[in-house]
Every structure is written in C-alpha cells, then in structure tokens.
Amino acid sequence: MFRLLIIVGTGSFIGGVARFLASRYIQNIALSSFPLGTFLVNITGCFLIGLFYGLTERGSLMNDELRLFLTVGLCGGFTTFSTFSNENVSLLRDGNFFHFLLYTGLSVFIGITSTYLGNLTTKLF
User: Fold this and answer.
1) Which of 70, 73, 102, 77 is nearest to 87 (CA)?
2) pLDDT tens readout for residues 13-40
C-alpha cells in the first residue's frame, strides 16, 4: 500500500506543478480576464485521463501501477475536473442517466455554493 501511495503522490506532485506552470503561462499570454489557463488545463486533463483509461482498456498496454500514476496521480494532480469528467462518462456509458444528472448538477451547484460560503465565512471573522 505504501508503494501505491508513493506512486500516486509522485504523479500528483508532477501534475500539480504542471498545472501551476501551464495555467500561469497560458493566462499570462492570454491577457484576458477569462480564466483561459484553468479552462485549457481542465480540458487537457480530461483528454489525457480519457486517453489513459482508453489505453488500459485495450489490454496489457499499461500495468496497474502505471495506470494509477497517470490517472489518479498525474491527472488528479493536474486537475480533479478530469476525474469528475471520467466518472460522468462512466455513468453515461453504463446508461445511468439519473446518477449522471444528479452527480453533475449537484457537483456544480453545491461546489460553487460551497466555494461562495467558504469565502463568505472568511469575511465574517
């Protein structure tokens, strides 16, 4: 188990640093108030996690440790939005439309609300 934690943690570290650098670089050259850096990082992360999971489904192209490093670690550190998107694709693929709508709707609504409430809480003290 410790080995898996190191594998995921290393991937998360690399993904987090890559997210910071890529997002900042893109935003600096975009010269816009639209969060283009974060948007492009999220979309790239979604593509990558889809690619990595697709490769694992093709057979023995990737062992479990490499899959964990690339998906949970690297993509998870790069953007948790990629995991959210992959879980939604799985729900749709399984025909679980109710849970797809529930998960997506609640995640977006409650996530934004929670962020607002967290920020509001800091203003109360």
Assistant:
1) 102
2) 999 999 999 999 998 998 877 788 888 9
At 40, is the secondary structure helix, strand, or coil? Answer: helix
Angstrom CA distances, 6 to 11, 68, 72, 100, stand at 8, 11, 12, 32
Cα dist from 89 to 1, 56, 67, 83, 111, whole Å:
28, 16, 18, 10, 19
> What is the pLDDT averaged over residues 107-125?
83
What count of other Cβ atoms lies within 10 Å of the Cβ of residue 49?
26
Domain boundary assignment for the chain:
2-79
Q: Which residues contact 2 (CB under 8 A, 6 or more apart)?
A: none
Q: Which residues contact 21 (CB under 8 A, 6 or more apart)?
A: none
- Which tens digits make up the pLDDT trace of 48-59? 988 988 888 887
Local structure of 73: helix, strand or coil: helix
